[in-house]
């Protein structure tokens, strides 16, 4: 039974077949009117008129006089030709400079197709000779440019984790349920999420990652181990860096319940910085930070020892994250937005 509340208009028309064109020729030769032919073949009168116009050609008699006649073969040939060139046109020739820019940013700088398109369009680059994100994905899918699906990490990501039964964990401080509701809308600057990224599971260094919710500013610090002492040492370095501005830059920090974050509350007891802890095993409550950890994994895959990663590489990854245009920031970069917020509170 047809759905009665659909807002989509049903397409009831259909294209003429070669048999129907033959019927048009026969009825037309009998002197039938357009309306009579339309009724005879079950199509609209306008369709018949257009078809006769399309298939009519000039013929010459033996006395060299000319006349007009409709031929179904001519109509079918013109129809087939038109069908071959219908639909959206490929814009590669008119967007060559933009496509080269796309290939460079995706293959060399690891940008996403949306980031490239949005950045170019927001900046008015290439005099409008760009394509939409959807069109760019179509070009990649059809092999029109040098980028392939394998070059797009997010497109190939699969969820292979199995559901596991978790034991209850202790929450070290105030629960995220106590966090003010206005933090959720990301309109206020200074609310951060924190986590650690590990390489090997034991006897290895780690990365401390801290992400600001509004601007998406990312801080990555290599720490000696995934332990509370190393985490607190890095937090104290940040306190020294920002000095009296620390509590205005870091108004809140949201952490998971890992033991490495157990000392955050006593460490910042003298600062106007509130610490909140997510529910156990709920990484989605630190979604911004988890998303950035996924970006870091593009450069530092799981299992790779953090101690083997050069400091220059970590700095490169941090700068890459902060200089990547984001759709949610109107294709501005986290670095731009963060510096703007610092000027506002200075």
SSE blueprint:
Elements: H1 18-29, H2 34-41, H3 45-55, E1 56-60, E2 66-70, H4 72-84, H5 96-107, H6 113-122, H7 133-141, H8 153-156, E3 174-175, E4 191-198, E5 206-212, E6 218-223, H9 228-242, H10 246-249, E7 252-255, H11 264-267, E8 274-277, H12 287-297, H13 311-322, H14 334-345
Parallel strand pairs: 3-8, 4-7, 7-8
Antiparallel strand pairs: 1-2, 4-5, 5-6
Helix pairs in contact: 1-2, 1-4, 2-3, 3-4, 5-6
Search tags:
346 residues; alpha/beta; six-stranded mixed β-sheet; two-stranded antiparallel ribbon; 14 helices; disordered N terminus
The biggest beta sheet is recorded as: 6 strands, mixed
State the end-to-end CA separation.
Answer: 65 Å
The strands making up the biggest β-sheet line up spatially as 3-8-7-4-5-6
The structure class reads alpha/beta
Count the strands?
A: 8
The averaged pLDDT comes out at 87
Number of helices: 14
C-alpha-based Rg, rounded: 32 Å
Along the chain, the helix and strand elements come as HHHEEHHHHHEEEEHHEHEHHH
Q: What is the overall silhouette?
A: elongated
- Sheet-strand content, in percent, reads 5-15%
Question: Any overview of this molecule?
Answer:
With 346 residues, the chain is α/β, with parallel strands linked by helices. Helix content is 40%, strand content 12%. The protein has helices spanning 18-29, 34-41, 45-55, 72-84, 96-107, 113-122, 133-141, 153-156, 228-242, 246-249, 264-267, 287-297, 311-322, 334-345, and strands at 56-60, 66-70, 174-175, 191-198, 206-212, 218-223, 252-255, 274-277. The strands form two sheets. A six-stranded mixed beta sheet has the order 3-8-7-4-5-6, sandwiched between helices. It has a two-stranded antiparallel ribbon with strand order 1-2. A hairpin with a 5-residue loop joins strand 5 and strand 6. Helix 1 (18-29) packs antiparallel against helix 2 (34-41) and helix 2 crosses helix 3 (45-55). The model is unreliable at 1-8 (pLDDT under 50).
């Amino acid at each position: 039974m047809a759905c009665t509340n659909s807002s989509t208009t049903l397409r009831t028309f259909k294209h003429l077949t070669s048999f129907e064109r033959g019927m048009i020729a026969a009825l037309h030769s009998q002197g039938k009117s357009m309306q009579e032919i339309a009724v005879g073949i079950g199509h609209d009168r306008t369709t018949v008129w257009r078809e006769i116009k399309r298939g009519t050609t000039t013929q010459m008699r033996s006395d060299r006089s000319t006349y007009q006649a409709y031929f179904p073969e001519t109509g079918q040939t013109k129809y087939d030709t038109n069908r071959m060139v219908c639909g959206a046109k490929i814009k590669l020739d008119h967007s060559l400079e933009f496509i080269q820019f796309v290939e460079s940013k995706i293959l060399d700088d690891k940008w996403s197709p949306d980031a490239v398109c949005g950045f170019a369009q927001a900046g008015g680059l290439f005099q409008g000779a760009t394509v939409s994100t959807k069109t760019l994905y179509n070009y990649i899918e059809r092999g029109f440019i040098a980028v392939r699906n394998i070059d797009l990490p997010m497109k190939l990501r699969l969820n292979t984790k199995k559901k596991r039964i978790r034991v209850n964990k202790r929450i070290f401080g105030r629960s995220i349920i106590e966090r003010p509701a206005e933090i959720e809308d990301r309109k206020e600057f200074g609310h951060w999420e924190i986590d650690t990224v590990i390489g090997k599971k034991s006897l290895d260094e780690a990365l401390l990652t801290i992400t600001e919710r509004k601007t998406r500013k990312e801080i990555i610090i290599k720490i000696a181990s995934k332990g509370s002492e190393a985490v607190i040492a890095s937090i104290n370095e940040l306190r020294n860096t920002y000095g009296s501005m620390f509590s205005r830059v870091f108004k809140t920090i949201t952490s998971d319940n890992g033991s490495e974050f157990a000392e955050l509350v006593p460490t910042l007891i003298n600062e106007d910085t509130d610490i909140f802890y997510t529910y156990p095993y709920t990484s989605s409550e630190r979604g911004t930070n988890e998303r950035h950890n996924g970006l870091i994994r593009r450069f530092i895959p799981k299992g790779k020892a953090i101690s083997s990663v050069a400091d220059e590489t970590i700095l490169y990854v941090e700068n890459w994250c902060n200089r990547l245009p984001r759709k949610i920031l109107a294709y501005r970069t986290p670095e731009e937005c963060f510096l703007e917020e610092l000027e506002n509170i200075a």
